[in-house]
Amino acid sequence: MSLLTVALVGPPNSGKTTLYNWLTGSNSRIVNYPGSTVEIGVGKCAAHWSKANIQFIDSPGTYSLQPKAEDEQVTSQLLSQGRRGIKPQIVLSVIDGTQLERHLPLLLQLKKTGYPLLVAVTMSDLLERQNLKFDWLELSKILNAKIFLINGILGGGLKSLIVELESSATATYPAFVMGTDFNPQREARESHEIYRLLSHKVLDLAAKTKSIAAKTKKFDRFLLHPIYGALIFLAIMGGLFSSIFTLAKPMTDVVESGFHFLQAFKFWESIPFGIGLFISEGLLEAFKSVLVFVPQIFILFFGIGVLEATGYLARAAAWVDAPLSKLGLTGRSFVPLLSGFSCAVPGIMSARNISSKRDRFITIFILPLMTCSARLPVYALLLGFLFLDQPAWKAGLSLTALYLFSILIGGIAALILHRLLPKTERSVLMMELPLLRKPKWWFVARQSMKRTKTYIYKAGPIIFFISLLLWVGLHFPKGENLTPTQQVEQSAVGRFGKFIEPAMKPLEVDWRVGISFLSAFAAREVFIPSLALVMGITDNIEENTQPLWQRMGTAKNAEGKPLFTVASILGIIVFFTIALQCLSTVSVAIKEFGHWKYAIGQLVLFNVVAYLLAVVVVQSVKLIS
Amino acid sequence: MVVDLSGDIEIEARLIDLGVTPGLEFQIQKKLPFGGPWILSTGTVSIALRENEALCFEFTRSEDHPSRQVL
Question: Using one digit for the tens of pLDDT, what is the confidence trace for A240-260?
Fold first, then answer.
């Protein structure tokens, strides 16, 4: 049977992606980042629904086929010429039953495209619960399209939708070219008329649905209150970031002891040619130092996911619009910037729904300054070292300070850009605040799990490759009768480290840290396994069972003085706060800036500033103490 | 109630997409502090608009026009 391609098109927050996930089940290869759908996703119809050859396309939410923001263009392009080589044959329009009036214009536009149209009305359970009736049959006649009411809990609506699609799967549709005669004003008027025509016959939906919104409004009275609202905002954000450390602690301990258990096997020593040693000291050590931070990353993803699902994120964005607009940003920058705290890559991509080009440019430019989760392991290690044997809250507080510091730096950078860039375009906010809902915990948990997995899969191969490279580079070429330290110093990596050591001198660290700095350009978190590897070999092997921060405490430089002082640690921290060491960020930035020169400029600028600032910090701390 | 849209064409088109069209009845629910956005609510929907965006359409208070039929 030939393949039937169905595009899901609907306004933002209409429940499109949820429906898509239901329809495709686990077969979806969805690229969905926190915030919203910004690119199409393609997935085969789940086998438990139908054996027919049907595939679904999830598209970014749009109110109109006449796009304004970048992510809205994706949808109109999908319908007119296809996107990524995929062109739909049927449009399944997804609209929110409680917001029919506002979603009607898009329905009418879709009708005009000439595509065979099916309509899925979500939130119909909400309408039912409020005993709201609407003449769907009449609307179906006007649109000449079948309408399916979809229940919030998997109901009959989906099944009959699938049955309809199965019968369509046998038909073939002609290729279609979209007209360009859209007039939003006229369409809005028309939809008003249709709506009035229908609501004349039945209950006034708009008036009635207000009762559904009443609860949201009650909450909004607090959430948007000048004093309570601000306190709630601070409490939620503070809670999110502090939970990253407090909640993750027990899970982190489990991961750590698990790896210690694995590494302690005598079995490794029995594998010849140093391969066993490589596995236990090199590979397991490398993976441990990264996997230890997975709980924290999961909690951050989960927290953002919950805020997104409840509808609070949009309120938070409204709150920060005024301060952000003074920096040349907008409330719409909030979600991308917040995502930037987990990873700059999805953050930069979700900046697509900022409609003003100028706002978007500034947002993308400063985004890599946000403390992403890859920096977290580095900070955790360095702060753990600074506050060794001291109460945990001190490290926690300093970490919070580091987050605030990154926001401050980001703000300064935004302000500078705001001053420098010509004011060509008006900045806009204009944003919908969705209804407040109870999050579907299970759904959010699964989604965060998926995102965390993606993170691990992406980081895993790099970590493996770099540790292999480093390990080999440290052990070869082999010398005769050398102490471990001498061996490393004459190895390929050691020689290269010595070569770049002059650049490390102003930072008061030696070549070993230099090597780790360089490997951090593969991915920031690789800093730790490479430091662990280099230090583990140059130090006494028997100390190898100690945690890395204790080994750091005993490390000496060439003059026999402690290598890691308060000054040098602060220097490394400052460097990591600003430096752009993530090549995936650069590649996404090239795409989203639309020109490589901005991304390369960003790369060079951030690293030069990071280095200079780190030197200033190290030298002034040294001077004071 | 919204009477007419005026001003910037781009903002106007966006307002229409958000459902702000002539005839729409709404309340100004909140104005966030420090010159923050206005929160307008219409039916089930709340919209955050900056002051300059909100001033892109003319509106009347419904109590000023008690005779006027409102959607």
Answer: 877 776 787 788 788 888 888
